[in-house]
Structure formats: structure tokens, C-alpha cells
Amino acid sequence: MGEDKRESIIEAALRLFEDQGYHTTKVSDIVHKAGVAQGTFYLYFKSKEDLFRSIAESCLGQIADAIKQNCTGDMKEEALYRMILESLRVYYNNKTILKILNGHGAASTEIADISDAFYRTIMLVIKQSFLDWGAFPNYSDAQLEIAAYSKIGMVELVAYQCFVVQNYDTTHIESIAQVLAGVNAPCQLESTEAGDK
Amino acid sequence: MGEDKRESIIEAALRLFEDQGYHTTKVSDIVHKAGVAQGTFYLYFKSKEDLFRSIAESCLGQIADAIKQNCTGDMKEEALYRMILESLRVYYNNKTILKILNGHGAASTEIADISDAFYRTIMLVIKQSFLDWGAFPNYSDAQLEIAAYSKIGMVELVAYQCFVVQNYDTTHIESIAQVLAGVNAPCQLESTEAGDK
Amino acid sequence: MGEDKRESIIEAALRLFEDQGYHTTKVSDIVHKAGVAQGTFYLYFKSKEDLFRSIAESCLGQIADAIKQNCTGDMKEEALYRMILESLRVYYNNKTILKILNGHGAASTEIADISDAFYRTIMLVIKQSFLDWGAFPNYSDAQLEIAAYSKIGMVELVAYQCFVVQNYDTTHIESIAQVLAGVNAPCQLESTEAGDK
Amino acid sequence: MGEDKRESIIEAALRLFEDQGYHTTKVSDIVHKAGVAQGTFYLYFKSKEDLFRSIAESCLGQIADAIKQNCTGDMKEEALYRMILESLRVYYNNKTILKILNGHGAASTEIADISDAFYRTIMLVIKQSFLDWGAFPNYSDAQLEIAAYSKIGMVELVAYQCFVVQNYDTTHIESIAQVLAGVNAPCQLESTEAGDK
DNA sequence: AATGAATGAGATTTCATTCAT
DNA sequence: TATGAATGAAATCTCATTCAT
After folding, report:
1. CATH no. for residue B65?
2. Band of pLDDT at residue A103, cut at 50, 70 and 90
3. Which N-terminal stretch is annotated as signal sequence (chains A, B, C, D) (predicted)?
4. Contact residues for D179 (Cβ-Cβ < 8 A; gap 6+)
5. What is the pLDDT of residues D103-149, one digit of tens each?
6. How far is the CA of C8 from the C1' of E12 (A)?
7. Which residues have a Cβ under 8 Å from the Cβ of B35 and sit 6 or more positions away?
8. Average pLDDT of chain A, as a whole number
């Protein structure tokens, strides 16, 4: 019962952060939307920032977990395509968080540490996948990390543009993944040595 | 003379936004750092948000211009690699803006319109380059746009991680570009049909 | 309970507006005098102007009501004298408002609409009384309105000068009313019995 | 030449005070309308209030002078009517001041002394006229003053309502004066003893 | 646990006035 | 005399947080 209120506060905050951003959303907006009293807020959260961190932590944690589960393991075949596809699905299912994440930046001062940790976590998952697949046999550790970050940036901005800005629905996810997976191949043909180094 | 003060306000704001973010930075911080009086601020800017928009507009405009100039034209050879390389250079030279941009998100409510326009502009430049090179002959318009956005997201997050978080210096730019340009090739080789579409 | 604070804010504002005028009175003065916190003010009033309008509306409303009740009905006998007498009593009992009203003008930009409506309301009451008494049988509507306004102006300035500037007490009201009621007759008749007191 | 600027400042201020009131009008508005520089203002006036006082003093002085000249002397015949008529003409010709006067109240804190003195001056002129005409032979001094103030209040509010609110033009002045002069006569007939008491 | 009125520090913004040129 | 950029004190208003009930 008490937890009901906590949940409704989080729910309300999530919506408001999504629509207006963290700074524009007032505690009074949140409690009003949640249907609880002003003081109740502080029964469950130490401060407004505490709520934001709490939400960010849990949400980014969920995304990270989802990616961990969906983008690892026995993916040898069409590995990259499937990793992208699954990541897109995760972002699609967490559109709200995607919106908040992009609306506050990778380093919104309030949650800079959380968001940094988030990116690092995902990057490590992807790097490990690369190693598992033997994808880039002669890349150094640093290079693998760059490669991993590049995948994250790619998927994230595209997810944001497609799902949030242009409101693509679930039926487009596969074709988007195909574009992302195949996107370098043609270049390869034109200028083969490009990344060969 | 008068413009000196305007410049020092912008300079100070740029530094403070970079360090603390827009919301944490007070007008009083800015004028103090700029060495001008509180009222002087409002001689040059209608409001704090006006300053932010002004800065964002001009900075993102510069980046967009730089990318336009450096990533188009006769790039046939090693086109993608050179586009990535030049983009990284632009981001490196605009580290401050990169930091602010990422610190406030792709859609910081205050400058959402400006930043949306910025991404769209760059995307169009890249799409056009793709068309000029004949890079993805059988991609639809929507697919080309996705491809373009994917490049932007890739370069931007990597630039942020390398230049801002990890403080790589200018000597690494080329090798980062090589990783980004070549990053899919090996995948291609290992799991050839991956993105083949 | 909560309304206590609202009341004390109004009370304090009334005093301060009376003493120093609206523009000179700061919200901080009001809350200080009312013994509440700065923020409390905005719990009950949207703005300083909102408070002023609120006060003006309610006070002028009270005066208008008092005049309506006391200056109409079966007054045939000595009608004008009694109307003036009652109006003076109303103004005397609302000295504070009288002072504010005169201190801010008939058309203080902040409450111009309210004060205009106030004068119009009273004028209409008086015009109706004139009609009820058959006082000016061959006056046009416009002329009756002018006559009504003239009575208001007369009573108001005299009330201000006597009650506010010269601090006459309640015992003088009747004799003032006599002067005002009789003041024109003598002139008319060559002014023989003048103020026959 | 220098005085040109002084004049244009006064002119501009007069217009702006009339339209928006003293407090709403900024010095920057005035100098802008007057076409001079900000600093020039302080070459001619010590402060904004100084300008206001200066304007009020001169304008009210003009009205007082005009009333003095037009409402005294050999007016025996129809004395009251002619005094009212002339006063209305004075107010009509000084509509701007009338508007400012009413817009700021009889006792706008900034010019309270000036405006008090103004009313007192006019009152004395009228009282003297009453004495000259032998209008109210057995009125005490205090009663004569009340009578005089009543005339001022009457004319002023009617002038404001007719000339400012309803924009009557010069052709109506005479008929307004007739209404004001005759306004008590009919009452007299209906309830003869009215002021007798 | 729940309430919501009250708080007050602090932020943004305004604008009369000054002063170096 | 004239300028107008610069000033900074001060005012209004906001809102996260507290606390008595």
C-alpha cells in the first residue's frame, strides 16, 4: 500500500521528465500527477535529485541488463545484425528512458556518474562479445572499446531519431537493424582498404 | 569595445556551461567570471536562455559548417574514412561544444529546436555525400537517412568518450578514424552475410 | 487557520498602501508587517498586483453595496440630503479605502478597470434614485448621468478633504451633509437664504 | 537649442505619463520618445521624480492660474454657472493633466504636497469668489471651504468622465455647465427644504 | 504513514543613475 | 552640451524542503 504511492510517484515523474525534462518538472507537478500530498514525496525520496538518480539507475540498469542478455551468448551467426536488432528492441521498449537519456545528455550533471557507468557497462558487454566472436582479431583493447562505443552511439542516435522523433513503430525495427548492420559494406567495396591499416 | 563585454560573457558562459551545465550555472556566476556587472548581462542578452540559445546556435552552426566543408566535394577515394576523420577533427576543435551538447542532451528542452535542426542539417549533408559517391545505390531515402544518422551517432559518442572522457590528444585522431571506418569490415569477413541485405 | 495568514496579509497591505501607496510598498514590507514568510504571500496571491486588485475589488464592492442600500428606497423626503449624508457615512467608515482610492487615482493603471466599474456602478445607483424621485423630470439620460457623477465627485473630494486631510470626526458628518445639500440652492435664487443653517 | 531638448523630454514624458502612468513609464521610454540620449535626461532633471514634480508643478500651476483668472472678478450675474463653465474649459484645455491627475490620485505619494497645495489654492480662489459674491452670507469659514471643495470635486470628476472617458468635444461644454449649475435647483423644487434644515 | 501549509534562501530581472568619452 | 554603455542595488517571484497535525 505504501509502495503504491512510491510507484505512482515514480510513474508520474517518469512521464513528466519525459515531457518536460528534469529541471522544468517541479516536485509539486509530480505529487499532483501522482495524486499524493507534497510531504509524501519525502517519505519515499530524500530529494528530487534522489528520485531522478533512483529512476535513472533503475532504468539504465534495466536497459543494460536487457542488452547483456540479448547481445551475448551464442550469436556467432549474423552476430552484429542480431546484436543491433536486439539493442534496438531494448531501446524501443524503453522509449521513455531513451527520451529522458537524450533529453538530459550523456552527462547531465545530476546523473553524470550513473550515465557514465551505464555507457561503460554496455561498452564492456559489447567488447566482450567482440572478443567472444573473434570479430576484430588484431585490434588492441582501446580499439575494441572505440569500436564498441561506436556501435552504441550509432544505435542510440538512430533509435532516438526513429522511435522518438519520427515515431516509427515496432514493425520497422528489423529493417532499421538491416540498414545499420549493412551500412558499411558498400563503402567497403568502393574503398576497400579504408580501415585496413 | 562594447562587444568586448559581450564576448567575455559568452566566453565565461561557455566555460561554466561546460563545467557545471546550464542549469547549475547562475547568471551571477557568469558575470562574475566575465568581470562585468549583473546588469551588463541584460544589455547583451534578453535572458539566460537567450544566451544559451545564442551560444548553441552559433556553435552548432560552426560545427555544421565545418562538416559541410570538410565532408563533401571530391572525396571519392576513401570517402568514408576521410569523412569520419574530418568530422572527428571538427569535434576535437569544438570539444567545449561537444561537452555541452552531450551534457545537455540531444533535446535539452531549452534548445530542443536548435539541436534538432543541427542533427537534421548534418544528416542531410551526409545523405547528399552518400548520393554523390553512389555509396548505397539501392537504399531508399529513409534508409539513407538512417545510415547518415548512424554515422553521426557513431562519431559523436566516440568523440565524446575519447576527447572528453579520456582526453585523447590530436595525435590519436587518425587511428580512431581508422577504427571507425574499418569497424565493420572484419565483421563482414567473419560473418560475411551479416548486413549483406 | 490558513485564512488567518491571508487576512493578516490583506490587513498589512491595506495599512501600507494607505500610508505609502501601492508602488512604494514592497511585498517584503507587507509580509514583514503581516508576520509571515515571503513565500506565504504567493500562497494566497498570484502577485502583488493580484493582491491590489483583490483588495480594490472587495473594498470598492463594499462601498458600492453600502451606497446602494443607503441611498435608495423610500427617500422622497429630503432625498438629496439623506443620500449625501449616507454616502458621507459610508466614506467615513471606509476612510482607509478612500485614502487609497484618492492616493492612486480614479484610474490607477493597475486597477483602472475596477475603479471605472466602481464609479459607473455608483453613478447608475444615483441616476436610478433621481428617476425614482422624479428629481430632474426633463433631463436626458446623459444629463442625468452627468448630474450623478457631479454628486459623486462632490462627496468624494469633500470626504477626502474632511476625513483624511483634516481628520474631522463622526460628529461633523451631518453638518457637512447640510452644506453639500444646500450649497447650490442659494446661488440659484440669487443666493438669498444661502446656507440657512 | 539646449532648451529644445528639455522641452522634448517634457513633451514625451507628458504623453507617456498620460498613457501609462508615472510608475510604468521608464526613463528610457522618455528619452527614446524624446529622441535624446539617456544621459541627456540628467542634464535637465535631477531625477525621474524631479521631472514629475516639475511637470506637475507647472501644469497644476497653469490650471490654478487659469481658474484664478476666469473664475473671479466681476461675475455677479450667473456667477456659479460661469465659474463652472470656465473651470470646465480649463480642464478641457488641460485634458492631459486632468488624465495624469486622475491617474495618480489626489495624493500620489511622489507629488502629494504639490497636489495638496493645488487643491488648496483652487479652493481658496473659490472661497474668495463666494465671499466676493456674498454667496453664502452666513456660512462659517469652514463651511465655505467645504462648499468650495465640493465644487472642485464636482467639476473634476465630471470633466474626467466627460472629456477623458467619454471623449466629449468642446461643443458639449456649455450644456455640461448648465447641468452642473442647475443640478440642485429641481431638487429644490421637489423637496424645498432640502438643505434648509 | 500521510498531509499540505508554511518556509526562506536564492535566482532572475529591472531600471534609475553615473561617468568616461 | 551630449552621449550611451555600464552599473548594482533592489524587487519580485519560485520551489525544494520541513514539520506540526
Report:
1. 1.10.357.10
2. confident
3. none
4. C139, C143, C146, C147, C150
5. 777 667 888 889 889 999 999 999 999 998 888 888 999 999 999 99
6. 28
7. B8
8. 86
CB pairs under 8 A between A and B: 209
Same domain, A127 and A34: no
How would DSSP label each residue in A103-130? HH-TT-GGGHHHHHHHHHHHHHHHHHHH
Q: What is the pLDDT of residues B6-58, one digit of tens each?
A: 999 999 999 999 889 899 999 999 999 999 999 999 999 999 999 999 999 99
**What's the gap in Å between the CA of C141 and the closest CA on chain D?**
12
Domain total of chain C: 2
pLDDT at A189 over 50: no
- Mean pLDDT over D151-166 rounds to 94
B184: closest CA of chain A, how far (Å): 6
For a pLDDT cut of 90, what percent of chain A falls above it? 59
Mean pLDDT value across chain D: 86
D184, C184: Cβ pair inside 8 Å? Answer: yes
Give the whole-angstrom CA distance, residue C8 versus residue C30. 9
CA angle A119, A121, A127 (to 5 degrees): 100
In angstroms, the CA B141 to CA B139 distance is 7
Chain B: closest CA distance from residue A163 (Å)? 12
Instruction: Convert the pLDDT of each residue in B51-66 to its tens digit.
Output: 999 999 998 998 899 8
In this structure, the answer to whether residues A31 and A87 fall within a common structural domain is no
Residue ranges of chain C whose pLDDT lies below 50:
185-197
Minimum CA–CA partner of B155 in chain A: A150
Q: Which cell is C94 given?
A: 471606509
Please name the residue that has the C-alpha cell 569595445: B1
Q: Name the range with the highest mean pLDDT among A40-49, A188-197, C79-88.
A: A40-49
Residue whose Cα is closest to the C1' of E10 = B26
Residue C194 lies in a domain: no
Instruction: Give the whole-angstrom CA distance, residue B106 versus residue B103.
Output: 9
CB-CB: which of A119, A153, A181 is closest to B194?
A: A181
Q: Is D197 inside a domain boundary?
A: no
Report d(CA C120, CA D161) in Å as an integer.
10
DSSP secondary structure of A132-176: HHT-STT--HHHHHHHHHHHHHHHHHHHIIIIIIS---GGGHHHH
Can you tell me the distance from the alpha carbon of A3 to that of A9, in angstroms, rounded to the nearest whole number?
10
D6 and D52, same domain (yes or no): no
Cβ neighbours of residue B89 closer than 8 Å, sequence gap 6 or more: B70, B173
